[in-house]
Design brief:
By secondary structure, the chain is mainly beta. It has 3 domains: 10-92, Immunoglobulin-like, CATH 2.60.40; 108-395, 6 Propeller (Neuraminidase); 401-692, Neuraminidase, CATH 2.120.10. Helix content is 1%, strand content 46%. It contains 1 helix and 61 strands. Strands 50, 51, 52, 53, 54, 57 and 58 form a 7-stranded antiparallel sheet that branches. A 5-stranded mixed sheet has the order 40-36-35-34-61, with no helix packed on it.
């Protein structure tokens, strides 16, 4: 007799990890969920199948008589999972297991501005995966001619610099939202007006390289946080001063190439402010070269040297060295616009014997000559370009955002005054840190605390002028990448502090404020505002371990003022002075702390007595006062500044050691004593603020 209402064997129903993304033309996203029915269906009289796609809050459904099932109405860049089930006359069968997370992307390429007989504000778009002519997208805020560049996240393309009306050096930054056609919106301003510049990005941060200013060619590099409007910030300087270069990127590295009569290729690390470094050379010196990239390879097309060129070069982004020949464009030209979807690179327009509207494409992973793609809406050159899937966008990172247990590394020191960059990790999965956004100002030696929804960076060293102690409190929402927002001010400017927290309140020991202090502040995460006096530590000091929390109690351990082995504790919900908890195994400062709701972990640090880094990991039971117990060892001796914890795992932040700075992250399983294991790499330098959305203080 049939098993009515059930799909026998449904638990074995196979759903692919990456449902096929469809329809880039209308701005709506849809997915095609394919599956294979198990062999033991039996006589279930199945009439149809259904798919359920959800981002955890919103649910989208589709039905079909067989595989695949189309589900529409999804949002570009949002993380989803999919499940399927069978239907017969008696009802629905059970849901299948969920797919891995995936994030629809439109695969849309953008070409903005440029020059015809005069400068134009036209924006065109194409679906990169499908050949065909470009369509009208909207208009820039001002007509301008811009050297080839690409600043895009999975949701936005940004246009900056150029020559606008007459010979005006544009300072304005525009942006468009890729999912919806329409005119550009004002974003902010560059540090100075310029043209003949180049740009690139990952999914979080856009880099704008040097070009021609009113006073001549400069060597300035600016950056922006793409998700957040605002003016550009100084990044560092180019290693060479040339104009009319091209640029492209991987998720971690930006590459600038050519310009003037140069064949030089330079690179920067997108997450870390610092001067550009020599990468290698193009096969032919030329300027106005277009770039397109995958996660691993940058292709550089056309340009003008002794004459206009049809050359396409390529480099492997992770490995410095000279470019190799890839193939040829269909025309010898300069000033084309370049973009990609990470698989296919497009080179559009430019100047050959005259202006052209031709779009060529290549498959980035395979060397060979370009193929005709279609045409722009009008012939023009020197456009600014973008896409929602270029090589700087890590598709794996998009689909994994946001993990259930997320650790944040905020700011840090790469030479004073510090960095703005914020990176995140999935604590449950060993991996390198991924870009999240930026603090409001550069600083290091801040402290971090968090609720399950908000993370706070408390004070630090180095505001905008790079020499002052900060009273700034910033916050970000774990759910939203981008730039931090001002939360309020601490009771005093300070750095070298430490923080603890439960799910509602953050408590920060200030550390150093013109001298070591014993001051403790607190904030309420849900309500932005200034810090309030909480009480005092048992002794003035800085460089302590924080991050050791239960839902009721927070611990501060070690510290520096002639060296301390003190462990203090506070009751987080109640203001008052700290109480002696016990002692660490050693006198140590610049030390990492973290743990679960029951066990606090302290690791590494600087032993003031011996003037040496240590590899000792020790622990305490948070609910019971007492001295620390040996846990194991870090992978090497170091001093570090914080930890990121879930209920089961603690990650020790990047560090400084006798041999120099390192971006290595270690981890331990909190419940089991033993030595640490390598977790991956941080994106930014030492002396960062660390926290997580799943530490021991969050029930």
């Amino acid at each position: 007799m049939p098993n009515r209402g059930k799909f026998i064997g449904n638990d074995n129903l196979y759903v692919p990890d990456a449902p096929t993304i469809g329809d880039a033309s209308t701005g709506n996203t849809e997915v095609s969920v394919a599956f294979t029915a198990p062999s033991d269906v039996g006589n279930d009289d199945i009439t149809s199948f259904a798919a359920r796609v959800t981002d955890g809050t919103n649910v989208f459904n589709g039905t079909a008589s067989s595989s695949p099932i189309t589900v529409t109405g999804l949002s570009n860049g949002t993380s989803y999972t999919a499940q399927v089930w069978a239907i017969n006359d008696y009802g629905n069968g059970p849901l299948s297991a969920a797919t891995a997370s995936f994030s629809p992307a439109l695969g849309r390429g953008i070409f903005g501005g440029g020059r015809v007989s005069s400068r134009v504000n036209t924006i065109d778009y194409v679906s990169i995966a499908s050949t065909g002519d470009a369509q009208d997208f909207g208009d820039l805020t001002l007509a301008r001619q811009i050297s080839p560049s690409l600043i895009s996240s999975s949701t936005r393309t940004v246009f900056a610099a150029g020559l606008s009306a007459s010979v005006t050096y544009a300072i304005t930054i525009d942006y468009v939202t890729l999912a919806s056609t329409g005119n550009a919106t004002d974003f902010g301003d560059l540090s100075v007006g310029r043209y003949n510049a180049a740009a690139c990005s990952n999914d979080v941060r856009g880099i704008h390289f040097n070009g021609d200013q009113q006073s001549g060619t400069d060597n300035t590099i600016d950056y922006i946080t793409i998700a957040s409007t605002g003016n550009a910030t100084d990044f560092a300087d180019m290693n060479i001063t040339t104009n009319s270069g091209g640029a492209s990127s991987s998720p971690t590295r930006g590459v600038r190439f050519g310009g003037g009569s140069s064949n030089e290729i330079s690179y920067i690390t997108i997450a870390s402010a610092g001067a550009a470094t020599d990468f290698g050379n193009l096969t032919v010196a030329r300027y106005n070269v277009a770039g397109a990239s995958s996660n691993t390879r940058v292709c550089m097309a056309g340009g003008e040297g002794d004459s206009k060129s049809n050359v396409i070069d390529y480099i492997t982004t992770a490995s410095t060295g000279n470019a190799s020949d890839f193939g040829d464009l269909n025309n010898s030209l300069q000033g084309a616009g370049g973009t990609s979807n990470g698989v296919r690179g497009l080179f559009a327009g430019g100047e050959a014997s005259g202006l052209i509207n031709v779009i060529d494409f290549i498959t980035i992973a395979n060397t060979g000559n370009a193929t005709d793609f279609g045409d722009l809406t009008q012939a023009r050159h020197s456009m600014s370009c973008g896409s929602d899937g270029h090589g700087g966008i890590d598709a794996t990172a998009l689909s994994a955002f946001a993990p259930a247990a997320m650790g944040l590394q905020m700011g840090g020191r790469l030479g004073y005054p510090g960095e703005t960059h914020i990176g995140y990790v999935d604590i449950a999965t060993t991996s390198n840190t991924i870009s999240f956004g930026d603090l409001t100002t550069p600083r290091s030696q801040a402290s971090g605390s968090a609720s399950s929804t908000r993370a706070v960076s408390y004070t630090g060293y180095g505001e905008a002028n790079g020499t002052t102690i900060s009273n700034i409190i910033d916050f970000v929402a774990f759910s939203t990448k981008g730039k931090a927002t001002d939360f309020g001010d601490s009771t005093a400017a300070a750095y070298f502090g430490a923080s603890v927290s439960n799910g509602s309140r953050g408590v920060a020991a200030l550390g150093y404020s013109g001298g070591f202090v014993n001051n403790i502040d607190y904030i309420t995460f849900a309500s932005a505002g200034n810090g309030t006096d909480f009480g005092d530590l048992t002794a003035a000091r800085g460089g302590m371990a924080g991050g050791m929390n239960s839902t009721t109690r927070g611990l501060f351990a070690g510290g520096f003022q002639s060296g301390q082995n003190i462990i203090d504790y506070v009751t987080i919900a109640s203001t008052g002075n700290a109480t002696d908890f016990g002692d660490l195994l050693n006198v140590v400062s610049k030390v990492a702390g973290g743990g679960s709701s029951t066990r606090g972990i302290v690791g590494g640090g600087y032993d003031n007595a011996s003037s040496a880094e240590v590899n000792v990991i020790q622990y305490v039971t948070i609910a019971s006062t007492g001295n620390a117990t040996d846990f194991g060892d870090l992978t090497d001796a170091r001093h570090t500044y914080g930890g990121m914890s879930s209920s089961t795992r603690m990650i020790f932040g990047s560090d400084n050691r006798a041999s120099g700075s390192s971006d290595v992250l270690d981890y331990v399983t909190i419940a089991s004593t033993g030595n640490a294991t390598d977790f991956g790499d941080g994106l930014i330098g030492i002396e960062s603020a660390y926290t997580s959305n799943s530490h021991g203080g969050i029930a």
